[in-house]
Amino acid sequence: MNTDKDLVYRLLRLIPVSELKLLVADSKGKNQLELIQEMQVSHSLDEVKKELVKQYGYLKQHVYTYKVSKAIKSDLIKKILEEHFINVGQKHFFFRKCTFTVKGIYEGSAKGKISNKLEVINIEFIQPCMVNIENGYLIVCFTILEKSINSYIPDYRIFETTIDFKEEDVLKDLESKLNGSISKADLNKGIKFLWERDIIDSKYVTYKKTSSLSREIMDEELTYKETYPTDYKEVIKAPLQKTTFRIKKNSSMFCDFVTIPSEGVVSFNKFPENLNQIENVISEIIKKN
Predict the structure, then answer these.
(1) Running DSSP on this structure, what letter comes out for residue 145?
(2) What pairing do the DSSP bridges indicate for beta strands 265-268 and 257-260?
(3) What CA–CA distance (Å, rounded) separates 175 from 173?
(4) pLDDT per residue over 132-190, tens digit each?
(5) Phi/psi at 80 (nearest 5 deg)?
(6) Which of 25, 160, 274, 281 could be 103's S-S partner, Cβ–Cβ 3.0 to 4.6 Å?
(7) Would you call 98 exposed, middle or buried from its count of C-beta atoms within 10 A (0-12, 13-18, 19+)?
(8) Longest pairwise C-alpha distance within the chain
């Protein structure tokens, strides 16, 4: 259930199939499972971790940004996180092990397996993460793990799932131990710069009014500024809350994202089309912030 081979399998599922095919010599006609099984044979856990570092830009990510007010040494961050880093230039990659505890009933047909009995199952995952300091910002990235545990234990009817590690726990620890050196970034200015220049437009916008929050959810392929240019002029003046943006220009350079600008959070819930799109979005936002 939690052998190195199992952990390799779960790590490789984080990579889009299009990229997995490039990692396997004879990939023609093979599906995701077949590609992963071939790599399980040829790659150790450490080798797969190194491959994930190379592929990191292709992974779905939650990105948290902080404004840095005092110089921070990477050794201090390493000490706080208590992790072994793989350093690539200014980027520091680390892998956190987390455990999902699942309560469920086995409903399969394996011989000797007891059905209809509540079991507690621990499923371990390794979450690739990255820390970077760029242009006065501390950037902390977490790969988005799959939400559905059912796909890993399909013969179980699941009643409850808990996890022993949450991104918020790591962030709170960083914020506490770097108190006075970092503060949550407000990305409104950088994001609005991109919106003003029609590089992005919103599918779902939430913004702060004087005494309330207002939301607009666009139909089908419509986007907010393009559809309501007059209303947009008022919205752009307000602090943005959770908002979904689509790329309107330079689509090869950038990718769609969801953001809570006032909290410094940007999420990429879909696989980007190329390796640098997520990094380009973050860099462009903080450069214009």
Answers:
(1) P
(2) antiparallel
(3) 5
(4) 999 999 999 999 998 788 889 989 999 999 998 889 988 998 899 898 899 999 999 99
(5) -65, -45
(6) 160
(7) middle
(8) 68
Which SS3 state, helix, strand or coil, does residue 90 take?
A: coil
Instruction: Give the integer Cα–Cα distance in Å for 131 and 178.
Output: 14
Q: Are 284 and 180 in contact (CB under 8 A)?
A: no
Token look-up 């599922």 returns 13
* Whether the predicted model's global pTM rises above the 0.85 cut: yes
The token duo for 136 is: 């006065």
- End-to-end CA separation in angstroms for the chain: 46
Alpha helices in 85-166 (DSSP H): none
Domain locations in the chain?
1-59, 66-184, 188-287
Token pair recorded at residue 186: 């407000």
Close Cβ partners of 165 (under 8 Å, ≥ 6 residues apart)? 96, 97, 98, 99, 127
Identity of the amino acid at 276: N
In the predicted model, is pLDDT for residue 78 greater than 80? no
Integer Cα distance of 238 and 218 in angstroms: 19
Separation of CA 11 from chain center: 14
Tokens of 158: 């699941």
124 φ, ψ (degrees, to nearest 5): -90, 140
Query: Both tokens of residue 273?
Result: 């089309």
What one-character-per-residue DSSP string does 16-46 give? -HHHHHHHSSS-TT--HHHHHHHHHHH--HH
**Residue (of 164, 162, 157, 148) closest to 118 by Cα position:** 157
Residue 159, token pair as written in the block: 């009643």
